[in-house]
Amino acid sequence: MRVRFDGVEVEAEEGQTVAGVLLAKGIRSWRTTRGGDRPRGLFCGIGVCFDCLVSVNGVPDVRACQRVVAEGDEIRTQAGAELPS
After folding, report:
1. DSSP letters of the chain?
2. pTM above 0.70, yes or no
């Protein structure tokens, strides 16, 4: 199947998580911190932390380690977190 990451089409396997797809493509960072713009990617890999947040189909704060990709997903890097205040 195919998904898009930051506008670039990438191949994905059925059942892969967003993090799995990105790591398989050699992409290790897909978010920056609110303070200092430090790169973040997969840390815990089980949905406990918030380091792997991405935007999927316009929805921010999706944990890349938990979200299984679907055909045509639009995945975007994210700056900080957009959690409600």
Report:
1. -EEEETTEEEE--TT-BHHHHHHHTT----EE-TTT--EE--SSSSSSSSTTEEEETTEEEEETTTPBP-TT-EEE-EES-----
2. yes
